[in-house]
Structures are given as structure tokens and as C-alpha cells.
Amino acid sequence: MKRSHSRRDGDDYERHRHHSKERDRDRDRDKDRERNRDCERNRDRYYDERNNKRSTSYKRNHDSEEQSTEVRSYEKQDLKKLRDYGKENRRKSDRYFFTNKEMEKKQETKASNEALERQNRTVELLTSKTGGAYIPPAKLRMMQAEITDKSGAAYQRIAWEALKKSIHGHINKVNISNIGLITRELLKENIVRGRGLLARSIIQAQAASPTFTSVYAALTAIINSKFPNIGELILKRLVIQFKRGFRRNDKPLCISSGTFIAHLVNQRVAHEILALEILTLLVETPTDDSVEVAIAFLKECGMKLTEVSRKGIEAIFEMLRNILHEGQLDKRVQYMIEVMFQIRKDGFKDHEAVPEELDLVEEENQFTHLVTLDEATDSQDILNVFKFDAEYVSNEDKYKQLSKEILGKKVQMKIVVLQ
């Protein structure tokens, strides 16, 4: 009896569970149907409203929006989204436009900052006291092109470096055959501003190549005919250099600078009084070295001194004769004195004062400087160093005009025949 009762209870429980599942399924199905019908009604209403709006007008005003209060909230949100698409697109395009403009401004600012930084580095490099490290010519031209302010210190320093390289290059290339061309190239450069550089380059080149002393003297004479202050500067520096070598007993320095002075006497750049002063200084207290330097000096300018100051050259040879008779010097030096007397007897035929191919300046254009040993004290070494010019542009224009006038007159010299 107990078992049958329990089986009946289990069957009732199964039937009850089955009926509850069917009820739940029916209820869910009814809800789905109701939801679908609502969606269809909403969809039909939405498309009806949209078709009506398209047929009437796309323009909506604030009053018509207030009257359609019965439209459901989710429909308003959908329509609002449709209306705002254009605004969002415009907003995005505006945002992209402003972003591009900002990027362009940033790029321009960055480029200007980089250019300014490069210019500052250039200024620091070129305006340092030592002039900085060596700069190749190509990089120097590129740095000069980057600087737009021609009146600034950086541009002037680059122009100074270019002027120094140009002058030094022209001086190293000069010889008898191209002296006319080199002179014209030098006159195109601002040698008034770079007169210290020009004087230093000529003196250094002559000391390195004494055999070309006559060429450098002829070049100095040509420049002296147009810019006498440059010729005087070269002469003073040579005299100071000679006195320095004499005080230090530096025979090679005395011979190189004395030889250059002698050729400047031949070219009528230096006065013969300076030559007589130097010879007197060398032979009044004779030593082996001083007499040897005097003999070398006499060989170079003896012919010219014989022409312009016969009494002076006779006095010098009289002093040499007395030194020879005393016999206190070395045999080699005594032999040099005897050879010098023989050269004088032959009329200095093997030691011509000015070769014909280097006699380039007309006599009326020659400018002779009377510089004595005591007067030559200031070598003006400051001219070798860069100095800022507040009126750089105007001074450069003035020199260009002067250079055109000089070159336009074909530099009234015998040099025209050689070109």
C-alpha cells in the first residue's frame, strides 16, 4: 500500500511539472508575439513619419518639433541621430582642418627653430677667439648661404675666412707668366679690408720660396701703385722682421727679409736710404754672419744703388775693403768680399735689378716709401685678425666701385702687354 501511494504522488508531480512548462512556454510565446507586433507598429509608424516628412519638406522648425509630443522617445532619439550626422561630419572635418593647420604651424616653428639653432652654432663657431676648427670651403659656402643677415658678425666672419683663403690661394699661385691675372684676381677681392692678410701671405710665401722674391716684389709694386698703404705695411713688417732677426742673430731670417727689402728698393717701393742704413748696420761692427748678410743684400740691390746713390755705395765698398785688409774674419767670408768686388767691377751684369718681364709699373705710377730702421716699429698685427664692421655692407659696396674703376682702366701698367 505504501508503494502504490508513492508512485501516484510521483505521477502527479510529473504532470504538474509538465503543465507548468507548457504554461511558461505559452506565456513566453505570447510575449514574443506582442513584442513583434509592437516592433512592427513602431516600424510602420517610423516609416510613415519619414515618408510624410520627405513628401512635405526636409525643413523642420522648432514649432513643429514641439507639436509632435506624442511621438515616442526612442523615435525622437533615432531621428535626432539622423539629423546630427551632418553636424558630426562637419565637426570632424573642422577638427581635421584645425589639426592640419596646427601641424603645419608646428612644423614651421620647428624648422625655424632648427635654422636659428644652426645659425647660433655657426656664430659660436666662427666668432670664437681662436676661430674654431678648420672648415672645408664647401661647408663654409653652405654656412654662408644659411645666414641671411649680411651685417651680422657670423656672416662677416665667414666672409673673412673666405677672403683669407682666396688671398692665400692667389699668392701661392703667382709666377712670372700669370702675375697679371693674379693681380686682377686680387684686386677683385677686398684687399683693403684684408691688407693684413695680404701682407702676411706675401711675406710668408717669399720666405718659403726665396727664388721667387723678384716676383713677389713685382706684385707688391703693382699693388703699391694702387694702394700705397698696403705697400707701406709690407715694407714696415719686413723691416721689423729684419731687425728682429738681427737682434737674435738669426742669419736665415735676416737674409730672407733683407733680400725682399732689396728687391723692393729695386722696384722703387722702398727708398735707397733704407738700403744704405741696413748695409751700414751690418758692416760697422763686422762679424762673419753680418758681412755674409751684407754681401747677399748687395748682390740684390747693388745695381740700383749704383744708379741712384753712387756715393753711398762707394762708402759701403770702402768699409768692406777695410774689413778685408784687417783680415780678422773667416777665410770664407774674405773670399766672399773679394767676389763682391769682382761683381761690382763687372757692373752687376749677373744680378740685374729688375728683369724686363717684371718691370711692370710705369715710373709715374710708382710710389716710394721713406721708411727708416728707427721709424718701423708698428707691424699692425691687429689687421691679421677679424674685426666686426658696423658699416660692412656700405664699405663692401664702396670697394666694389673702386675695384671696377681700377680694373676698368686696365691698371695702367706694362702688365697689359703680358695678358
UniProtKB/TrEMBL annotation:
Belongs to the CWC22 family. Residues 164-347 form the MIF4G domain. Its main location: nucleus. GO terms for cellular component: catalytic step 2 spliceosome; nuclear speck. Residues 7-52, 72-88, 101-120 have a biased composition (Basic and acidic residues). SUPFAM superfamilies: ARM repeat. This is Pre-mRNA-splicing factor CWC22 like protein. InterPro entries: ARM-type_fold, CWC22_splicing_factor, MIF4G-like_typ-3. Residues 1-120 are annotated as: Disordered. GO terms for molecular function: RNA binding. It is found in: Nucleus speckle. GO terms for biological process: mRNA splicing, via spliceosome. Keywords: mRNA processing, mRNA splicing, Nucleus. PANTHER family: CELL CYCLE CONTROL PROTEIN CWF22-RELATED, PRE-MRNA-SPLICING FACTOR CWC22 HOMOLOG. SMART domains: MIF4G. Transmembrane segments: none annotated. It comes from Habropoda laboriosa.
